[in-house]
Amino acid sequence: MDQLSNLLKSAFESPEFFQKVDEIQKSLYQNDAVLKSLILLFPALKKTFSAQKRKASTTIKQFLRIRVD
Predict the structure, then answer these.
(1) Whether 17 contacts 11, CB under 8 Å
(2) How confident is the model at residue 61 (pLDDT cuts 50, 70, 90)?
(3) Helix, strand, coil tally for the chain in percent (to 5)
(4) Rounded distance, CA 62 to CA 45, Å?
(5) Which residue has the higher pLDDT, 11 or 21?
(6) What is the pLDDT of residues 23-59, one digit of tens each?
(7) Angstrom distance (rounded) from CA 26 to CA 29
(8) What's the Cα-to-Cα distance from 16 to each of 6, 7, 12, 13, 33, rounded to whole Å?
């Protein structure tokens, strides 16, 4: 049991372990920042997409009216 305890202790105290934890933490912070940015941008993207959809719909309707008339 002492050997296992010593092995685990040495693994958790190694510089490589702390480096990996630091890398994972940085990655999580970056992903969190990206997610927050997307959440903040979503209303603007939705509004822009809706406006473009309305414009395309109007253009298609106008085109169809010209073709029918």
Answers:
(1) yes
(2) confident
(3) 95, 0, 5
(4) 26
(5) 21
(6) 888 888 888 888 888 888 888 888 888 888 888 888 8
(7) 5
(8) 17, 14, 9, 9, 26
